[in-house]
Structure formats: structure tokens, C-alpha cells
Amino acid sequence: MRVKVDKVTSAAVSISLDGSDEELRLLADWLRGEDPLRGRVTMIGRPIPAGEMGGVLDAVQVVLNSGTATALVPALFAWLHHRRSASKVTLKVRGDRGREIELTCGSADDAQDVLRQITTVLDNGR
């Protein structure tokens, strides 16, 4: 008997905000609270400039596959609705085969389009 195993594709999604480092930390904590995203959420910092004592956060990164993409988008838009102080987010999505897209969104109306575009990167990977 031969079993065919399809390769699972993944994508790294970097989420940046018009806001403070604290907003990024709150978003990361919120996303880590979603069971499918646990262990997939990290913080990305900018290099520490010469003469400065600490780094600056740049983005929240989430590693997705087709099963977890459907958890990220509702959680992200629920956080946006809940926070109200973060009006816009930018998502940079990079598939494991090199395909990259950048999305800017902020309203709940964008959720379905964001999910569709992330899923396209995961499905096509290129």
C-alpha cells in the first residue's frame, strides 16, 4: 500500500502597527491566547542603534499553515475591534516558496479578503 502525503506549506506573517511597542506586546499576548497559535507567535525587534540602551520592537511574527490561518485572521480582527487605539495593521506574508505579499487593513470588512490572500500564499506558495 502506498500513501500519498501532501507537503504542508507554511508562511511567516509579520504584523506591524501604527502604535507603540506596548501595543505590539499586547497583540502578541492576545494571539498567544488562541490555542491554534500557541508556540507560533514571536516578537521581532529592530537592531539596537549605536549609543542606545535597548531595542525597539518592529513586529509580531506568526508562523502559519493552512490550518492555523483561519485562527489568525479572526483573532487579529477581534483584537483590533477590542483595542480601538490601533487603527491600522500591516501584514507582510512570506510563503515557504518565496512568495510575498503586503496587506494593510484595519476594519472588519477587510477580514475575509485578508484570509483569502493569506490562504492563496499558503496554497500556491509561489
Key features?
126 residues; alpha+beta; five-stranded antiparallel beta sheet; 3 helices; 35% helix
**How many extended strands?**
5
Low-confidence parts lasting 5 or more residues at pLDDT below 50? none
Shape: globular
Mean pLDDT: 82
Helix count equals 3
Computed over alpha carbons, the radius of gyration is 16 Å
Query: Percent of residues in beta strands?
Result: 25-35%
Short description:
The protein is α+β, with helices and mostly antiparallel strands. It contains three helices and five strands, in the order E-H-E-E-H-E-E-H. The chain is globular and about 45 Å long.
List strands and helices in order, with pairings.
Elements: E1 10-17, H1 21-32, E2 41-46, E3 56-65, H2 66-83, E4 89-95, E5 100-105, H3 111-124
Antiparallel strand pairs: 1-3, 1-4, 2-3, 4-5
Helix pairs in contact: 2-3
Describe the 3D structure:
This protein is of the alpha+beta class and 126 residues long. The protein is built from 3 helices and 5 strands; from the N terminus they run βαββαββα. It has a 5-stranded antiparallel sheet with strand order 2-3-1-4-5. The protein is globular. The model has no long low-confidence stretch (mean pLDDT 82).
